[in-house]
Fold this protein.
Amino acid sequence: MMEYLTFNKFLTPFVMIFFYYAGALGIPLFLLFYSRDFLSKGYKHLSTLLSIKNRWIFSLAVILLFFCMELCWRMIFELIIAYFDMHDSLSHIEKLLEKGTI
């Protein structure tokens, strides 16, 4: 029973899944909602300054930046998962050393 109440076995996977998807979906939506006035005013100014070709390049740069941010978010959570896996392995080795089986 105690192994299910530890932080690593019981709480971590559910919390990490929630925060991963909350960040991956919520942060872009929050930023879009938060900056909608700036984007609407800024896009009017950009549309007058940029030609059609440059608008496509600018749009592709924004999309590429978005995917890079999503990749960084994913890498952060992969690092956290690796950290907890290392913690599990070291805890298992510690228990084996305490029993004297190693």
